Amino acid sequence: MRKIVILDGISMGNVDFSLLNSLGEVTYYDLTEDNEVTSRIQDANVILTNKVELNKDNLSNAKSLELICEMATGFNNIDIEYAKEKGIAVTNVAGYSTNSVAQHTFATLLHLYNEIAYYDDYVKSGNYAKSPIFTHIDREFNDISGKTWGIIGLGAIGRKVAAIATAFGAEVQYYSASGNNNNADYTKVELDELLSTSDIISIHAPLNDKTLGLINYENLKKMKKSSVLVNMGRGPIVKEEDLAKALDEGLIKGAALDVFVSEPIGKDSPLLQIKNKDRLVATPHIAWASVEAREKLFGYLIENIEAFYKGEKKNRIV
């Protein structure tokens, strides 16, 4: 019977891993440290990993390995060249989280844009109960309608966000870091124009040489002081120390982040030290993880294993 090893199952939450039992003998680990990988995969035919690094050093001991299943879209934690050299198939899952990430984009944006934390606290603190009038509008907030929404990365998620932003009444424009994306539905602009004219900027781009450190202090200075930055792409696209400085200096109104340079966020991250904490909404890389998205992801993982052993090329990277 083929042996299936799950290296960091806890990252998937409460999905039903027992569904894999019909495909082989399953060994499950919540988490796997770097020094534990070699021994845990040495007899595996199939490995499931999310963030555990699989490199030449640990893979070389897995003599029976046939398939590596990335439990995500990004596969930078896998040594693809070594897998190709050794004839080890690698699969990933794309497109499962589009709805979840788009929804989280608006959840965090609206939390910040509508000053929800402040007004929620105003009511729960008892101050509203003491008020002589029916309302309290000490913190200004704005409509999305009529604003310009700039998107960096107009892939599947970016397009979903663009459609929702349009439904809100925003004018959508986008910047393509690669220069290869041309979408007639929205206005394509250069980065400087997007930064200087957008009221809301959301990032849905992959991390590569063209996006690494793209949002730095110089580019943050080009943004409107009333603007909001949302990063749902990859943490290193935004220079965290520069963003913290920009928030403290009031260069932009606020930022909403679900991804960080280091995950979990570093204890010494400048984002945890900002003076005006209400300018920042931060969530622990959960945009991808709605119940429905994780169920879809796990279903695709099972399909990938089944397809491999049927000789099909579905979702194959290698």
Automatic annotation (TrEMBL):
PROSITE patterns in the cross-refs: D_2_HYDROXYACID_DH_2
Superkingdom field: Bacteria
Keyword Plastid: no
GO molecular function: (2R)-2-hydroxyacid dehydrogenase (NADP+) activity; NAD binding
Domain D-isomer specific 2-hydroxyacid dehydrogenase NAD-binding, residue spans: 107-287
Sorted UniProt keywords: NAD, Oxidoreductase
UniProt-listed InterPro entries: D-iso_2-hydroxyacid_DH_PdxB, D-isomer_2_OHA_DH_cat_dom, D-isomer_DH_CS, D-isomer_DH_NAD-bd, NAD(P)-bd_dom_sf
EC number: 1.1.1.272
Residue intervals of the D-isomer specific 2-hydroxyacid dehydrogenase catalytic domain: 13-317
Family, per entry: Belongs to the D-isomer specific 2-hydroxyacid dehydrogenase family.
Name used for this protein in its record: 2-hydroxyacid dehydrogenase
